[in-house]
Amino acid sequence: MSVTIRVLRLAHGADMPLPDYGTAGAAGLDLRAAVETPLMLGPGERTLVPTGLIVEIPEGFEGQVRPRSGLAARHGVTVLNAPGTIDSDYRGEVKVILVNHGDAPISIGRGDRIAQLVVAPVSRVRLIEVDALGSSIRGAGGFGSTGR
């Protein structure tokens, strides 16, 4: 399935490439940092990184902002609210909340790939309040209740 996303570049991202897929089989578009000067992200710190883009996600879809595995594996840097959601009616700049769980500072420079954007369909649900629910094998068993 192909979905068209309208994109508006902001002034601080005007010279940067649009997000793209790293390979033909990639699920996510690479999002890049639209910072004027490098950001230093120390251990335990978090920061909001601008992308210089506003996107128009079609109704019935969402944009999921997800971590990049390379940043996570090499530096312990991830998206704090992963996956972050871009709703179809949001028209502000896409920004990424990065957090450094590693043990060394990392520099985020202009154009660095910082996250990925996956566009996915969204189901709208209708809630019906009832007096009782059907049973299941698991029941009310919570975290770890299904074993190791």
From TrEMBL:
Binding site for substrate: 68-70, 81, 85-87
Pathway note: Pyrimidine metabolism; dUMP biosynthesis; dUMP from dCTP (dUTP route): step 2/2
EC number(s) reported in the record: 3.6.1.23
Domain annotation dUTPase-like: ranges: 16-147
InterPro entries named among the record's database cross-references: dUTPase (IPR008181), dUTPase-like (IPR029054), dUTPase-like_sf (IPR036157), dUTPase_trimeric (IPR033704)
Keywords: Hydrolase, Magnesium, Metal-binding, Nucleotide metabolism
GO molecular function: dUTP diphosphatase activity; magnesium ion binding
NCBIfam families, sorted: dut (TIGR00576), PRK00601.1 (NF001862)
Name of the protein in question: Deoxyuridine 5'-triphosphate nucleotidohydrolase
Source organism: Tepidamorphus gemmatus
